[in-house]
Amino acid sequence: MRQVVHNQLVYYQFPQWAELKHGIFTRKGGTSQTPWDSLNVGGTLGDDVEAVHKNHALMYEALNVNSKRACTVWMVHGNEVVLVNDPVNGRRWIAKADAMITHKLDTPLVMRYADCTPIMFFDRVKQVIGIAHAGWRGTVKGIGARTVQAMVQAYGSKPSDIEAGIGPCIGPDRYQVGEEVVSAIQDHYGTTDELIRRDPADGTAYLNLWRANELDLERAGVEKIYISGICTAENTNEFYSHRAEKGKTGRFGTIISL
Questions:
Q1: Looking at residue 237, which CATH number applies to its domain?
Q2: Element (H, E) at 71
Q3: How many domains is the chain built from?
Q4: Alpha-carbon span 156 to 76, nearest angstrom
Q5: Residue 198 domain-assigned?
């Protein structure tokens, strides 16, 4: 990914999408205090509300997107996809869901993360964008593939025209999971090959969210998939990590806009 510095903010972009306004922001350059320091955009974590609002404004300014039309969702670790046309009056979030798609210009889609996988979507033929939130639950519920299917149904996209970017999340060397997750992976994919690694010392399981979401997208017909390869748990100097910081942390923001 390409790193961009704007004033004190640091964010990453997929270089393949130079014409698209988008960014996966780090925790740097904001106004929040410890343990949310400093560009926390999670509003329900105990951080000062005014600081969170200022942090959102800093992100919108850095990408030069329309904050008045910014849309987000109340994420629930599911696989619901929302078609976005306009913000909802009197409410910050559109719906309870874990993905959004739109063909509207000047309508930023915004989501928040702290180990779960950000997935961005771009169909440059139909000029459609999307964004998804994929923890292990959303991953085994096929949130990535569901987003692709929604773009096909709503806008006539072809899966082969859709490009996907898998952003920073907890990596395969740090994401230890229980046997219920291993079973869920087996049920969804029909295999755990490339997806689950066992520690040779004690047999504990580790999940590869990057590969799991890549495989889900491949099965949905997506041919161009870009993977950041950045582990949030190993890079807490740049990203929030719920696992590495034992829950006492913030949320980093992602934005995509036509």
A1: 3.60.140.10
A2: none
A3: 1
A4: 27
A5: no
